[in-house]
Structure formats: C-alpha cells, structure tokens
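stage 2 :: seqdesign
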C-alpha cells in the first residue's frame, strides 16, 4: 500500500498537481475561533449544535463548540460557523 501511495505522490509532484487534489487529502482552514472551512471530505456522520463529526479520507474530524452551524455545503467543501472550542482529527 505504501508503494502505491508513493507512486501517486511522485506522479502528482511530476505533473505539478496539488497534493490535496491528487491524493484526496483534506484541507482545513480555521479562521479565529469562529469559522472552519473543510475541503475534500467524504460525509457528515453527526451534526449537532455542540458537536460535528465529519468523515474525511484520512479519518474522522471532530469539531466541538457552541452554536455550530453549516454555512455552506457542497460535495467538495463546507464552511462551519460557531464558537469553536476543540478540533480533533482521529486517524
């Protein structure tokens, strides 16, 4: 499995394709303690106002906070707003 991943990694680098697109890596952009943008994810596993669990290609992303809500939701990305207190990536 490691060889297959390394082959893909080398090809992406040679073609100058961004790693996140070529290798299905998730990208998390946190702005302050009130917004997070998630790109390249699989699905939402749990959505509550104090906890959001998202399945990514590398594991589960768990977001804890208050008044969490999804501002934007497409198959490629989502934006979450609220009072963020903890962000955990379980692999």
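stage 2 :: out
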């Amino acid at each position: 499995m490691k060889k297959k991943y390394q082959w893909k990694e080398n090809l992406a680098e040679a073609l100058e394709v961004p790693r996140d697109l070529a290798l299905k890596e998730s990208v998390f952009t946190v702005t302050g303690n009130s917004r997070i943008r998630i790109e390249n994810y699989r699905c939402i596993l749990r959505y509550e106002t104090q906890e959001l669990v998202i399945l990514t290609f590398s594991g589960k992303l768990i977001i804890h906070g208050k008044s969490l809500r999804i501002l934007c939701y497409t198959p490629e990305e989502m934006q979450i707003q609220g009072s963020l207190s903890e962000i955990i990536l379980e692999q």
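stage 3 :: structure notes
- The first helix runs from residue 2 to 14.
- The chain has a mean pLDDT of 84.
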